Structure formats: structure tokens, C-alpha cells
Amino acid sequence: MEHAPPFLASLVIGLAAAFGFGLAARALRMPPLVGYLVAGVAIGPYTPGVAIDGAFTRTMAEVGVGLLLFGVGLHFQPRDLLAVWRVAVPGATAQVAIGTLMGTALGMALPGLGFGPAMVFGLTLAIASTAVATRALEERGRLSGEAGRIAMGWLVLQDLLVVLGLVLVPAASGEAGEGMAGAVLVALLKLAAFATLMLVAGRRLLPWALQQVARSGSRELFTLAVVVVALGVAFEASALFGVSFALGAFFAGAILGESDLGHQAAAETLPLQRIFAAIFFVSVGMLLNPARLLDAPVTSILALATVLIGTGGASFALLIALRVTPAIAATVAASLAQIGEFSFVLMELAIGQGILPDSLRGPVLLGSFGAILLMPLTFRLLAALAARIPRRAPPGAEGRSRLAASLPRMEDHAILVGYGRVGVLVAAALRRHSLPFVVVEDDRHRTEVLTRQSVPVLWGNATQPEMLEAAHAARARLLIVTLPLAWEARRVVELARAANPGIEVTVRAHHDSEVDWLYAQDSSGLAVMGEREVALGIADFAMRRMGVAAGTAQETVDLLRRRRVADAAVAGLGA
């Protein structure tokens, strides 16, 4: 190892540590990113033993954030973001203001910190990490839904505020004068110029260029071209327009997402996104000095509380005030209840210019580290709080109520909850045979599409009793739940059974425990696990081609479908 180039050694050690600790975190039923953070602490410069090059790792981390945001942008077209500006603009602005004021109050309580530096300290505690939020939403299957769109609109506006923050930070040191207003104006003009360039020229040039590469028939060149576009636009945004690297990559993805090449571009970059995102979280862990954690324990704990309340709590309250449904508000707020890369940039800039003392680096890092570690608990707590909030009609609820009233009196019908990739196929099968069903979907765009197709649909969250009542659950024959989250699926099933004890149920499941729960409620129901159904489909095909009678093969499939994977492996097919 001593003869290996330092950068190569850093890359190998960083990835190996991320894998090892990520695997351990998964074994403990925790998100892998917790393992990545611990890996960073283990191989960081403040921990005895192996240490890797911090500057190189931070560079790779910035690449990771850029690729991650590029991938997110591919799935969020500009019209999707414009649809949530009503919530994102006032909500994110107010949340950053609240978080900054709370952090400023904490800073003012510290000895030797004036109002200006305290405000910079407050701003570092008010900006959520886009990389952390998108990964958290992706792990819970909520990135492509309404919660994901609101979160991305919120985060994009936060990033724009950071651009202004980087310009205004010198003002806290008293060095700004008459030129500060001009500097802010220049920053805004650069941002507007970049956005105009992307919308006017980039919308035409980038898809055209990738189309030419795709016609060459070389998948390798297409993958390379996608990466060049993602990182090239991000670098141009940073170097020429003063826009953050991550925000530039997001804009590039959003522009390409409008073309028919978007899905393939996303598929080609996904492995790279996952690898470099892991390096990002390792780099965050490397910043933490375990020996300095107790230097300012009270300040560190208060900084963590400020992040959780000033960002997570304020976001939840503002979303509820903006009439977002409680369940979606809880998901968005929980994903935002943390700080990350842009907070570190602001912190290092302020420390480098002598605005903040070096002693505040620890509280900011601990606030970030602790908030990320607590994210699973934050999601559960806010979800529980959302369930206790009386439902208030969101914007457009009057239209939804009229739609519910216009539904024909339905009996012996199916209720399809969720119209994503799974639900759309189920609906197609039901429509093919003219079977009566009604869709419950919380994505407004999908609801409008179904309405134009004359499909009975209700816009709202099915975890609320009013939605199932509007869907005539008391007279329904079948409930089909395709939601990705287990707690949401359980809530919907419980509400449906309360309204109609005899309703049959089929749910989308991800773990054996979810299957066991459904069968404990009703042995005649069906819990479908994606990977298991793929295996059963292949097994059924194999048995029939190998001479097993169709009826016998089906009996085996039915038997294995109700067994745990481990039990089936032990028992064997002949059991």
C-alpha cells in the first residue's frame, strides 16, 4: 500500500470502508448511509489508524452530489417544479428565516459573537442537504411522488438562497460597504443568465447532442456523454455563473428529463450516483473529530436541537399551514430535518475569513451528523404526529369532493390505492375486463390524467378515513394497496377493514414481516413481494418446461408464495 499513489489508496480505502460499515448498518436494520458516516469517522484524520486524503475525498464527494442531483433532475421536469412553487417559495423562505433566527439567537448567547457572525452561524443551521434529503426520500419510495416534488422545490429555493448567502457572508465581518448591493445584484443577474441559457439553448442543444451520440450505437460513449453533460454543465454553472455545482447539475438533469433520452440517461448514471454518494457521506464523517465532541457539549446539543426544530419542525408547521396533507408534510419535513454540504461551505468560508471562530466547527458538524443519524426516528415521530392532526382540506379539495360526489353508486368494486408503476398495470388489467374500480392517488398530475381518461379517481391520501369513505369502501369487494411504505399500507388496510370487515385485500410488500402481518389479519388475502414474484414466475415457467403439470406447478407456486423465503429454502420444492 505504501507504494500506491495517495489518491488511489484514498479511493480504495474510502470505498472499502463505506462498504464494510454500510453492510454492518444494514445488518443492524439501519440505513446504509449511517454506516457511511461512521466509516468516515473511522478513516478520518482525527481517528488513530488508517487515514485518507481529505481534499481528494471532498472533491469526489462534490462529484457525487453533482451526479446525485443530476439524476434527481432527470425525474423532475420544470413543469413539476413550477407546480409546487406555491408551497416551496413561501415555505422554504420562511423556514430558512425561522432556522436562521433560531441559530442567531443561539450564536448571540455565545461569548464574543456579535450579531453579524451569529447570523452566519444561524444560516449554517438552516440549510438542508439536498443529497441527504433525496437519498432519504428515495429509500422510502417517495422521491417521484408529491412529497418528492415539494421537497425538491424547497431544496432548489434553499440552494438559491445559499448563492446569495455566499455573497452576503463578508458583510458579517464589516468589510462590506457600498459594493454589497452591487454584489447581490451581480449574483442575481448571473443566476438569471444561467437559467435563461439552460432554458433557451440547453433545452435544444443538450438533448440534440446526446441524440447524436446515441445514434452511434455505442453504449460506452453514451454513458460517457451523459457524465460529461452532467459534470460539464455543473462546472460551467459554478465557474462562470457562481451557481453551486450541485444546482447546476440539477438544472442539466431537469432539461434532459424533458427529452425521450431521460430514462436511459438515468439508467446509465445510477451506478455512479450510488458510488459517489457513498463517498459524499464518508467525507461528512471525516470532518467529525470525536475528541472534540465534548469541548462544547451544550452548544453542540443546542445546535442539533436548532436543526431538528428550526428546519424539520418549522418545515412541518409551515407545510401544514400551507394546507399540504399531514402525511406528505411529515415526509417532506423529516427529509429536510438535517444540514449538510452547503452548511459546510458557509461554515468554512466564515471561519476562513475570521467571521466565525474555529471552535464552532464542532457544533455545526455534530448538528449535521446527529440529525442524519436521527432521521429514521424523525420520520417515525413526524408520521405519528401527522396521524393525530385533524384532516384539513388541501387546495382543490372542493373539486375533489365534487368528483367524489359524482362517482356512481359503486358496489362489489375494487379500490386501487396508488397509481405508480405497479398501480398502472393493475388498472390496465381491470379496465381490459371492464371490472369496476376507483383509484385513490395523492399525485395531482396523475389524478388529472386519469380524470381526462374518464377513470373514477379521488385525489388525496388514502390513510385518511374520508378518502376510503368517498371510495365507497363499505360496499367494495377488493382493496388493492400498491403504496411503497409499510406503515401507510397497514393504515389503509385497517381503515378499510373498519369500514368493511368482509373486504378482501392484496398489498404490495417488501419484507416477510409485512406478509406475516397481512396473513395474520386475513389468511385469504395476498401480499405480493416484488422479488419473490419474479422468482415464482421463473420457477413456474421452469417447472412447466421441465414436464410438471400446470396444476401441480401452480400448487407449488401458491405454497411458496405463503412461505418465508428462508423456510422455503429449507423445506425445498418437494415439501
Automatic annotation (TrEMBL):
Q: Any idea which UniProt keywords this protein has?
A: Membrane, Transmembrane, Transmembrane helix, Transport
Give the transmembrane ranges: 6-26, 58-76, 83-106, 118-138, 150-173, 179-200, 221-252, 272-289, 301-322, 328-351, 363-387
Location(s) in or outside the cell: Membrane
Q: Which PROSITE patterns match?
A: RCK_N
- Alphabetized InterPro entries for the sequence: Cation/H_exchanger_TM, Na+/solute_symporter_sf, NAD(P)-bd_dom_sf, RCK_N
Identify the Pfam families for this entry: Na_H_Exchanger (PF00999), TrkA_N (PF02254)
Known PANTHER family for this protein? CATION_PROTON ANTIPORTER YBAL-RELATED, SODIUM/HYDROGEN EXCHANGER FAMILY/TRKA DOMAIN PROTEIN
Family the UniProt entry places it in: Belongs to the monovalent cation:proton antiporter 2 (CPA2) transporter (TC 2.A.37) family.
What's the name of the protein? Cation:proton antiporter
Give the organism the record lists.
Muricoccus vinaceus
